[in-house]
Amino acid sequence: MTLLEPRIAPPATTPAPPPPPAGGPIDPAIRADVDKYRQQYARFLAGELSDEVFRVYRLTNGIYGQRQGGTNQMVRVKVPYGSIQPEQLEMIGWLVDTYSRGWGHITTRQNIQFHFVQLDQIPEVLEHLAAVGLTTREACGDTVRNVQGCHLAGACPHEELDVTPWAEATYRHFVRNPISQRLPRKFKINFSGCETDCGQAMFNDVGVIGVTRRTDDGTVERGFRVFIAGGLGTTPHPALALEDFTPRTELLPTIEACLRVFDQAGNRDNKLRARMKW
After folding, report:
1. Of 37, 43, 151, 222, which one has the greatest count of Cβ atoms within 10 A?
2. CATH class of the domain whose range is 28-131
3. Tell me: the pLDDT tens digits for 73-126?
């Protein structure tokens, strides 16, 4: 298996090898997500959920119906701030060999996705992902998407601070959070450790860059510069500086305040103009 170069998938008659070993006890929140997906899928099959209702639920859980039709699905796996463990990568490799076509894709938002998984196989795939602590929860839909982080966080000689703990805290704060389940449109957050801005804060709904400032007593305080309302697409718009310095203790409340303003004031009538940049 390779995540970078496609190859011919093994014939359908080739016996699938056993999955790699699990990474320990399953996170209770991920366990609940998988159980609920099984329940909702059963309700869909029984005719208790309409196609549209199940489609929205499926997308919120990172499962995309493919344009080729039939029951082909794309599975998008969240990899918060691009940090993945060896056993997780091994599991994804096994999944793309067993359920997909032998290769996957690393996205520009640090997700991993793979195609041509059949709809009735999705619960099995979610179970295997859960076994190594991975989830597809809110990888799509009008939610807070995968939280990105600088790929050199913790190792870059130029960083003002390692953004990893704050990216992790931001991911954990918003995933499954009731305030981020029915937004006007998707909401994207990036972290960079220095003004080189490898995380591309200028093109996200909230971009966070590590900075320092000198206090009145001469000591150096580490914190963040927060940018908001950036975006690309057909009408790109660079982000605007919200404030020059945000203390570390105030970062999460600041991001949440931005999200709440977007939730209340965002355009729910026209999805084409339903981003922070508008």
Report:
1. 37
2. alpha beta
3. 999 999 999 999 999 999 999 999 999 999 999 999 999 999 999 999 999 999
